[in-house]
Write a structure and sequence with these properties.
Blueprint: H1 2-8, H2 12-35, H3 38-48, H4 53-56, H5 61-69, H6 77-96, H7 106-115, H8 118-121
Helix pairs in contact: 3-5, 5-6
Length: about 120
């Protein structure tokens, strides 16, 4: 086998770094694809849009609406329409409110919303 690699110009280092790495990487991708369906993947991606860090920099109305659509028993078509408008106002509001500056998690955000009574102003959020 060593003779064959020497003749073909492929070193053991190349074999392990390229050939073996690619095989393992392909296997990992297949495993991930088999464990996470499209809905689950979309749920993870859309949930990232609700990250309150850096003054809600990652908040994305389209992703949050897509997230809400994954819960049809919680949001009907009228509520989805209203949620779009509510999210636009909410995002502008919390970005300007100093009480929301150092929030890092969704749990902290939820608590702060209740403390500031914004859960009453933005019930769909």
């Amino acid at each position: 086998m060593i003779q064959l690699r020497k003749k073909s110009g492929i070193t053991n280092k190349h074999h392990f770094q390229v050939d073996c790495f690619n095989e393992v990487f392909d296997w990992l991708l297949q495993e991930l694809d088999s464990r996470f369906n499209e809905t689950t993947s979309q749920l993870l991606v859309c949930s990232a849009a609700f990250n309150p860090r850096d003054s809600f920099y990652d908040f994305n109305v389209d992703s949050l609406i897509s997230l809400a659509k994954l819960y049809p028993s919680d949001f009907d078509s009228v509520q989805l329409r209203d949620l779009n408008s509510e999210l636009l106002h909410y995002i502008g509001d919390v970005r300007q409110d100093d009480r929301f500056l150092n929030i890092k998690t969704i749990a902290e955000l939820s608590k702060k919303m209740v403390d500031t009574k914004k859960h009453l102003t933005y019930p769909l959020v």
